[in-house]
Amino acid sequence: MMQHLQGIGMTSLRTRERMVSRLMEQGIRNHKVLDVMRNTPRHIFMDEALASRAYEDTALPIGYGQTISQPYIVAKMTELLLASANPLTKVLEIGTGCGYQTAILAQLVGHVYSVERIAPLQKKAKDRLWDLKLKNVNFLHSDGGWGWPDHAPYDGILVAAAPPEIPEMLLQQMAVGGVMIIPVGMGESQQLQRVTRKDNGYELERLEPVVFVPFLSGRK
Predict the structure, then answer these.
(1) Inside any domain, residue 18
(2) Does residue 28 form part of some domain?
(3) Does a structural domain hold residue 22?
(4) What range defines the domain where residue 118 resides?
(5) In sequence order, which residues have a C-beta less than 8 Å from that of residue 196 and are 6 or more positions away?
């Protein structure tokens, strides 16, 4: 098991070091984010056939029409979330996917509440986080557009799929001072956005163009 987690060859720590160097060249500055990504075995979150490509700067398929985001996007969204003025005691993640982004967040925030609409993907993610002994994560099989009202309000929300506009239910579940990082838009015209909840409303910043899978409703 330990060998599997540590990796060899194209999945080794040396390969992760190269990934981290590239992230720094791409402008990622938060050393906590870089350290966690250096020490988290990304290759265990994908099928063995693709494991040798785990540390390339590209999105890769994880089944069910979903992808694992490229390392830069994972690092960027995490860094943006951590730049929040508030302590991140409770973070809502929409789109567990394979669980890699969940694993990164779980090592940097108090508690992660992760929602996924595709049950088999969530089952795999749970198993992988268990292997990594990350216990500060709760999982819900549900439509991401509903969020997870039971544990609201959240200090941070991170969304891993692109809706045409920001779901109202997610805005309502933000704490005052809380931050949401979310890709918004259709097809090729998506933008990564940061929403901050203020006492009297919401502040919206458009950050950079991105490409995410579409935000779909329902459960599978």
Answers:
(1) no
(2) no
(3) no
(4) 63-210
(5) 84, 177, 178, 179, 202, 203, 205
What is the per-residue pLDDT across 119-153, written as a single tens digit (0 to 9) for each? 999 999 999 999 999 999 999 999 999 999 999 99
Per-residue pLDDT of 150-199, as tens digits, reads 999 999 999 999 999 999 999 999 999 999 999 999 878 899 999 999 99
Q: Give the CA distances from residue 105 to residues 102, 202, 210, in Å, rounded to whole numbers and listed in that order.
A: 5, 24, 20
How many structural domains compose the chain? 1
Strand residue runs (E) in the chain: 60-63, 66-68, 90-94, 111-116, 137-141, 154-159, 174-184, 190-198, 201-210
Q: Tell me, what CATH number does 145's domain have? A: 3.40.50.150
* 27 is a domain residue: no
CA distance 61 to 51: 11
Is residue 69 annotated as part of the catalytic site, yes or no?
Answer: yes
**Torsion sign across C-alpha atoms 88, 92, 94, 100:** positive
Please tell me the pTM assigned to this model.
0.92
Q: Which of 12, 69, 84, 142 is catalytic?
A: 69
Distance of CA 27 to the CA centre of its chain: 18
